Structure formats: C-alpha cells, structure tokens
Amino acid sequence: MKLQSLRALLAAVETGSLRNAARKLGVSQPALTKAIRELELELGAPLLLRSNTGVATTAQGRVLVDRARTVERELAAAVDQIRQLSGEMVGSLHVAAVPLALMLLVPEALRTFSASYPGIRLRIDEELYMAQLTRLRAGEVEVCVGPVPAGLPAGELVIEPLMPIQMVVVASKYSQHAKARSLAELADARWVFTGTSADAGYATHLFAEHGLPVPRASAVVNSTLGLVALISGGDFVGLMPRQIAAHPTAAAYMRTVPVQEGPLRAEMAAMTRPESTLVPAVRHFIAHLSRAAHHFGGLEVVG
Length: 303
What we know:
By secondary structure, this protein is of the alpha/beta class. The chain has twelve helices and eleven strands. The protein is globular and about 70 Å long.
C-alpha cells in the first residue's frame, strides 16, 4: 500500500471531488483516480462512491480513511521529532485546553514559549476535559491542559501537575438558589452539567463525594460560555472554576452559592501520551506551562 495512494484517498475525501483532490496534490485527475483504483484493487473493496456531485466514502473507505489520517499524523510527528532531536526546533504542536487554562496559564506559556521557539507552529483548541482526553488518546492533540480525570488507568498518560482548581456552585444572582447553604437544598434545582453527557458533569462527583444522590441534569452544555449563558439567564445551578465565577463578566450576572460542603477540588495538569514525552517541543511547552503556573501562584494550596 503506497503512501501516495493513501494521500490521494484522503485528499478526495477532504475536498469532496476527484478534480479538487488532484488540484490540491498537484497531480492530474487521471493519475489520482488511478492511485485510488489501485487501492481498491489491492483491498478488493470499493472505497469511494462516485456521483455527479462528488465523492463519498463507502463503509470500507471510512475505515481506511480513519487509519490513513492516523498514519499521516504519526509520520508528520516523526519528522518533527527527528528534526527537533537534531537541534532544529521546527514543526507544529497541537494543544487542547479547558477554558480556565486558556484564561490563566496558556497566554503566559504561549508568550514565553513562542519567544524561545519561534519555529514551532502552535494550535490551541478550547475543549472540555472529557472531549480533550478522547482527542489525546486518538493522537489528534499532543498536550491536554485540564483537570486530572478520576479513575485514569496507571501509566496510560504522563501527568504534570500545574495548579489546584476549586469548582464552586453558581446560580443567577436573582435566583432563589443563590441563598442555599447546603447541597441538600439544591437537590431539586435545575442543574446544568458541562460535558458530553449527563453522566459526566462535575456535579456528579461533588454530590457523590458527600454521599448525596446525584441530581438530575436539566441541561447539558459543551462549553463554559453556554454554562454562563444558561445560569445567568435562567433559574439554573451549575459548577464552574472559582476564577471564572469571580470574573467581572460572570460576576455581574451570577454569584457563588456558599454551600457548607465547600467546592469540588481538582487539579489542573498537563497530560500527554507516554510516547509524546520524547518530543522536545512537548517537553519544552510543558515546562513553560509549569512556569506560568508558578507565576500565578498555582502550586500554592488555595484555602
């Protein structure tokens, strides 16, 4: 199976047509069509569905496309790593970070890292921690910056602690729930969970930590902005980092609910796959994240 043929298939899928794929790769359309046809003959299965409107993958094609993308990422990473190990700090680094990390740590880390290694092209994505872990495991990002998940298998990821986090209960400043003094008083509140499902919300961990039944999620959002919008605009309750809740933009519409159980405590960390720790750019970026955490006093215990 030739790498050029795999790239032809990827280009066809990404552009939606054989003509556009050929233009993207700088080859003739007959040459590109021949490369894909050779793959189909080698595998004994159709990979693309061709029509007047373009191309789409078959079930077999989707399997190969997914693997081909992984191969291309790994090859690009290998080239970067070899060049960096030879002292040439060039290439790319893909980072996923939760909103709190983007607010506090990433700007300072980017400032110092980019000044030291201008040849490294950085891409930063905002991701909730469950989504970013999925992408890290799939090799789509090299570094995740977010809370350390509970129940992580030993040795699966390399974890560099950065700073403690306090997830506090928040409600609209006009909500009756803003006066609550215990989690029990909020058991029947309309909770907003952040995550990919109602089972992944921080509130699940907070209530379970205190031996209380987990409340039902009235809504699930996949962004901090969505959480702020729902809580500030309605009679909802949720959890968010203390620093975000205290930000003037959020504090104008909501307040921290002083429950006697206190906040949910977690730890922000930089997480990588074990093989990524061998990449110089990854090691250097995490070092700059650690310095940014120290800059903000992140390693001191917050009361």
